[in-house]
Specification:
The complex is a heterodimer. Chain A is mainly alpha-helical. Chain A folds into 2 domains: 72 residues, no CATH class; 225 residues, MetI-like (MetI-like fold, Orthogonal Bundle), CATH 1.10.3720.10. Chain A contains 13 helices and no strands. In chain A, α1 runs antiparallel to α13, α5 packs antiparallel against α10 and α10 runs antiparallel to α13. By secondary structure, chain B is an all-alpha fold. In chain B, α3 packs across α5, α5 runs antiparallel to α6 and α5 packs parallel to α8. Chain B starts with a helix and ends with a helix. In chain B, 48% of the residues are buried. The chains are: A mainly alpha, B mainly alpha. The interface between A and B is large, with 47 and 45 residues.
């Protein structure tokens, strides 16, 4: 297990360097001069020159990249051009809500997707199977913002059942839960289709295996056969799929946060890019990319735990 | 072995095409989808002939008109005809999807085929692809839009880059099955140069699987592109771009929901058609299913 973790961490290093380089690129192509931003209006050329030297802006690009790495590793992501607050501070407020949203979306998508996929596999060829599979193709073809807009249109505006603007507070409060329902369901619904399809395929393969026939011959109920015996064997590919879909989840989170005015990293990233706040854009992209790496690492570990053969 | 017999042994793709067409004609749903797609593409190409309205001309007297006889899809907050805007939007959406797949496809195929053919480059090229692959497409879009500013080309570039690694993988795996074949050894013995061998034998054999993957990917690319322009990273307003139109119409959801929902449905239908066609193409060309 430890070897797997170390291997995965080693593979992540070049990706991490690539991510950091893109973040660095965002800063060096920025049309605004960081020294001028820090010095504020009316700064003398002498002060600017001193600041540039202090910030290392007069050095060669590679040296600047090394300096940048040093700063980032110390947790210094610069200051926002717009409100002058440290980027890391703004990010620390936004990371919680994003994480919470993605987790709740998974809590919606994984059980529903697996249940629908298993049902379709057990009912193979019947109308339920066809309806589930057709809806999953439709779900795969629907842009995330369309589901969100339809949900707002009906559940929010038309029937007035649920709030759809912002976060209502921590998840243990009633208002927090109510505000979470629409964003989490919308984000989760992106994943339901792929999870259901993958579960169905994996389950169909498992259901033909000998040990399932043995389980049935023992007189176990079909429900027990599926839930206790087949599902566990069918799960590893589904977990891999969830890992592969993590990118979509992250992208979907950016869209969902923008639509529901959710105070997360995605919304921060979009507003930073729209207002040319380069240090903030760099920080948000770094955080999103690193969380993508962490999600994938976690998926690999869960995969290991589910499928003992990989540990050998 | 003469050069002629080498050529006869190699291309498989030319023979599978008529059979594939026959299979496609048998698959009724796929056929209907193909006809619909052709109609939509024709509609997008001949958009100026299909509607007398200018997608950019505003008319403050006709703001937010619901769908009806004169304006089939209604009008938006500035009185522009939505049918005209959707038709022009489909044009832009399909064109940017196609361009990005084309660019990503060429680069990806080149990388994948080279990785399979030149063993020494394999490891470096494919690890580089893994690195790009582990960067979600929407983040690439954010980064590119952050660096070069929002615009249609930023979206196309992001989509193209995110298409390169999966296509490189597909191209590499199908090229690997060809590079050790006897007819390639024969071609080399005949003194053919690497470029000729790659073009004439390796590429031709990879073409079907790459084309199937590209068809499968088209819907995803359009969805991603729409999301990026919805987020404001694509063509800025007043461009008739489907994602941008949805984003513009979002504020009117309560008073005039059709302004946001009409372009939404347009995207949905196009992607649905492409996804069903992609699935059909996979079923038709996948040798496992053919057996």
């Amino acid at each position: 297990m430890l070897r797997v973790v170390i291997n995965r961490l080693l593979i992540s290093i070049p990706v991490l360097i690539g991510v950091l380089f893109i973040g660095f690129l965002l800063l060096i192509v920025a049309p605004s001069d960081p020294a001028a931003v820090i010095a504020g209006e009316g700064a003398t050329p002498e002060l600017l020159a001193v600041l540039r030297q202090e910030l290392g802006l007069d050095r060669p690009v590679l040296e600047r990249f090394a300096l940048y790495l040093q700063r980032v590793l110390q947790g210094d992501l610069g200051k926002s051009v717009i409100n002058k607050a440290p980027v890391i501070e703004e990010l620390s407020y936004a990371m919680g809500p994003t994480f919470e949203l993605m987790l709740c979306a998974l809590l919606v998508a994984v059980p529903v997707g697996i249940a629908l996929g298993s049902l379709a596999a057990v009912m193979r060829g019947r109308w339920i199977d066809r309806v589930i599979m057709m809806s999953s193709v439709a779900g795969l073809s629907m842009p995330g913002f369309m589901i969100a807009l339809l949900a707002i249109q009906y559940f929010g505006l038309h029937w007035g059942l649920l709030p759809f603007q912002g976060r209502g507070g921590p998840l243990w409060t009633w208002s927090g839960i109510l505000h979470m329902v629409l964003p989490a369901t919308t984000l989760g619904s992106i994943l339901i289709g792929p999870i259901a399809r993958m579960t169905r395929t994996a389950m169909l393969e498992v259901l033909t295996l000998d040990y399932i026939r043995t389980a049935r011959a023992k007189g176990l109920s079909e429900l027990k056969v599926v839930l206790k015996h087949a599902l566990r064997t069918a799960l590893p590919p589904v977990v891999t799929l969830i890992g592969l879909q993590a990118g979509y989840l992250l992208g979907g989170a950016v869209v969902t946060e923008t639509i529901f005015a959710w105070p997360g990293v995605g919304r921060l990233a979009i507003s930073a890019i729209a207002s040319s706040d380069f240090p903030m854009a760099q920080g948000t992209i770094l955080v999103l990319a690193v969380s993508f790496l962490i999600i994938n690492l976690m998926v690999d570990l869960i995969y290991c735990w589910l499928d003992p053969r990989i540990r050998l | 072995m003469t050069q002629q017999s080498v050529a006869v042994a190699a291309p498989r793709s030319a023979r599978t095409t008529p059979r594939a067409l026959q299979r496609l004609l048998k698959d009724k749903i796929a056929l209907v989808m193909l006809i619909l797609l052709v109609l939509i593409i024709l509609g997008a190409i001949f958009a100026p002939l299909l509607t007398s309205f200018d997608p950019y001309r505003t008319s403050l007297r006709n703001r937010n008109v619901p769908p009806g006889a004169l304006h089939l899809f209604g009008t938006d907050e500035q009185g522009r005809d939505l049918l005209a805007r959707v038709l022009f939007g489909i044009r832009l959406t399909l064109a940017s999807g196609f361009i990005s797949l084309f660019l990503g496809g060429i680069v990806g195929t080149a990388i994948g085929v080279c990785a399979a053919y030149y063993k020494r480059a394999d490891n470096i090229l494919m690890r580089a692809m893994d690195t790009v692959l582990s960067f979600p497409a929407i983040l690439l879009g954010l980064a590119i839009a952050g660096i070069s500013g929002p615009g249609t080309w930023s979206v196309i570039l992001a989509l193209a880059i995110s298409t390169v690694p999966p296509i490189a993988r597909v191209a590499r795996s199908s090229a690997l099955s060809v590079v050790n074949q006897d007819y390639l050894v024969a071609a080399r013995a005949l003194g053919l140069g690497d470029p000729t061998i790659l073009r004439r034998y390796v590429l031709r054999n990879c073409a079907p699987s790459i084309l199937v993957y590209v068809t499968l990917r088209f819907g995803q690319v359009i969805l991603l592109g729409a999301s990026l322009s919805f987020l404001g990273l694509g063509a800025p307003p007043p461009a008739a771009e489907l994602g941008t139109m949805v984003s513009q119409g979002r504020a009117l959801l309560f008073t005039a929901p059709h302004v946001a929902l009409v372009p939404c449905f347009a995207i949905f239908i196009i992607v649905l058609i492409l996804n069903v066609l992609g699935d059909a193409a996979r079923d038709i060309f996948d040798p496992k299913i053919q057996q």
